[in-house]
């Protein structure tokens, strides 16, 4: 019998997020035309248009939703991004805070941070969408079974941190997000591989997610070992 974690692993590793930077750069060039008159609506409409021009066999569309909640991450908060969601219909939802246009003000001073945070959040959700896609292909002739598996995927509760971050589906997604965080800070695949050898010396400024796992789980605990294995899988081609 195929285990769920084995069924999902291949598609999650194949997630490629290089297109995100390209789409963001196109959006940036269009937003620059508005100059200091850029509004929240113009910023969001520009992002939405560029990303909804992108389609693949894994995701079908993008939604940008304003939320009044504030992010727990100072880095996210600085560029008015709250988070992101990915669903079993292939939709990526980006959650942004009011006044997002300020992230692009002052000659795009915060652009790199915005681009990095955006890519990291979306990479996590694209991994989940890859998981959903793999399940759909497996059970396309058995809708009932598909619903059962998708329901199981959605059962994780973020409020229970250790249990949530131990979930195999989240381990894959957080590993991908962590890799993108490392790359945002200038790490190459080779440098990340070396970092794994001394993971117990993790620095929160290199990858917040990586640091969280190292400090949440003891050295020999399976979730941490699995997390490190998934990171290695992402960087070794």
Walkthrough of the structure:
By secondary structure, the chain is mainly α. It folds into 2 domains: 120 residues, no CATH class; 80 residues, no CATH class. It has 12 helices and 3 strands; from the N terminus they run H-H-H-E-H-E-E-H-H-H-H-H-H-H-H. The chain has a 3-stranded mixed β-sheet with strand order 1-3-2. A hairpin with a 4-residue loop joins strand 2 and strand 3. It is globular and about 55 Å long. The N terminus is likely disordered.
Number of helices: 12
Q: Give me the Rg, rounded.
A: 18 Å
Strand order of the largest sheet: 1-3-2
If you average the pLDDT, what whole number results?
84
> Low-confidence spans: pLDDT under 50, at least 5 residues?
1-14
Describe the structure in brief.
The protein is mainly α.
Could you give the topology of this structure?
Layout: H1 4-13, H2 18-32, H3 40-51, E1 61-66, H4 74-78, E2 81-86, E3 91-96, H5 105-108, H6 111-138, H7 143-153, H8 161-166, H9 168-184, H10 189-197, H11 208-216, H12 222-235
Parallel strand pairs: 1-3
Antiparallel strand pairs: 2-3
Helix pairs in contact: 1-6, 1-9, 2-3, 6-9, 9-12
């Amino acid at each position: 019998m195929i285990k769920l974690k084995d069924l999902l692993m291949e598609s999650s590793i194949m997630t490629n997020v290089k297109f995100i930077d390209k789409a963001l750069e196109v959006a940036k060039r269009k937003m620059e035309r508005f100059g200091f008159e850029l509004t929240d609506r113009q910023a969001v409409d520009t992002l939405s248009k560029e990303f909804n021009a992108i389609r693949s066999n894994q995701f079908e569309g993008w939604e940008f939703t304003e939320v009044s909640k504030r992010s727990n991450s100072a880095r996210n908060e600085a560029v008015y991004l709250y988070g992101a969601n990915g669903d079993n219909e292939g939709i990526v939802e980006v959650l942004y805070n009011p006044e997002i246009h300020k992230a692009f003000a002052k000659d795009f001073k915060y652009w790199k941070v915005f681009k990095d945070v955006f890519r990291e959040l979306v990479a996590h959700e694209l991994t989940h969408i890859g998981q959903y896609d793999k399940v759909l292909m497996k059970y396309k002739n058995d809708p009932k079974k598909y619903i059962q598996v998708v329901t199981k995927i959605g059962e994780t509760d973020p409020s229970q941190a250790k249990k949530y971050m131990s979930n195999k589906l989240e381990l894959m997604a957080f590993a991908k997000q962590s890799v993108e965080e490392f790359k945002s800070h200038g790490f190459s695949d080779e440098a990340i591989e070396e970092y794994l050898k001394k993971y117990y010396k993790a620095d929160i400024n290199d990858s917040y997610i990586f640091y969280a796992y190292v400090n949440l789980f003891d050295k020999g605990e399976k979730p941490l070992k699995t997390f490190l294995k998934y990171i290695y899988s992402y960087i070794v081609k």
